[in-house]
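Whiteboard transcription, Tuesday session. T.W. wrote the structure tokens on the left side:
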């Protein structure tokens, strides 16, 4: 099995070019005998792929057909051997929705000396291999990881977590119970002691020093 190259995304290199413009000019310039299988394992249709020699300042024009490249599909390219830089981006569906993009250049530029699979994918809630297979044995696989450009919500996001982080609503305070002197008087006993007439409690009190009890005088 040939070596498996793992390459990192350089976000600073994710300069997105206009999707329109010329197609096929750079592809014709780099035509050769080495096979590059470009695979779209991202969750969206791809509208742009640009490749050129890593020694060149520009990425060149768009290598994809005008219809783009569907998620899970591959495009077979034939280039001359060399060290390449590349960039891809999915089709923007609006400024609010965002898109995915990736760049390989300089330290992450890839070598083409035999058949290569340029495997474009993003990290989300679905394994990239469920969208498109890694060819492996017959190809040197260059993993070409992209990232979201704009407010794309990940497939494994949990909106309920935001609700859990919101401020809890404070419960209405329960008023404290107020105890007056009447709480210490037995109404039945007070009524019996005063000829069947209930008396209002008085705050005047006496204390039995021997027993330690306190008595309130009715009035």
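and on the right, the sequence the group agreed on:
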């Amino acid at each position: 099995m040939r070596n498996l190259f793992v390459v990192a995304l350089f976000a600073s290199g994710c300069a997105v070019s206009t999707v329109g413009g010329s197609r096929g000019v750079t592809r014709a310039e780099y035509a050769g005998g080495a096979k590059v299988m470009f695979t779209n394992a991202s969750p969206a249709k791809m509208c742009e792929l640009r490749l050129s020699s890593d020694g060149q300042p520009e990425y060149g024009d768009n290598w994809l057909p005008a219809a783009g490249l569907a998620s899970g599909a591959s495009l077979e390219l034939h280039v001359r051997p060399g060290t390449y830089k590349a960039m891809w981006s999915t089709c923007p569906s609006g400024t609010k929705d965002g898109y995915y993009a990736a760049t390989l250049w300089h330290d992450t530029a890839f070598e083409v000396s035999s058949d290569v699979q340029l495997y474009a994918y993003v990290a989300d809630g679905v394994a990239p291999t469920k969208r498109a297979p890694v060819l492996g044995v017959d190809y040197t696989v260059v993993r070409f990881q992209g990232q979201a450009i704009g407010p794309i919500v990940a497939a494994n996001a949990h909106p309920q977590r935001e609700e859990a982080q919101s401020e809890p609503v404070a419960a209405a305070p329960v008023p404290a119970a107020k105890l007056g002197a009447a709480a210490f008087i037995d109404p039945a006993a007070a009524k019996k002691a005063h000829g069947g007439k209930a008396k209002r409690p008085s705050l005047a009190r006496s204390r039995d020093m021997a027993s330690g009890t306190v008595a309130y005088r009715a009035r």
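Someone added at the bottom: The radius of gyration is 39 Å.
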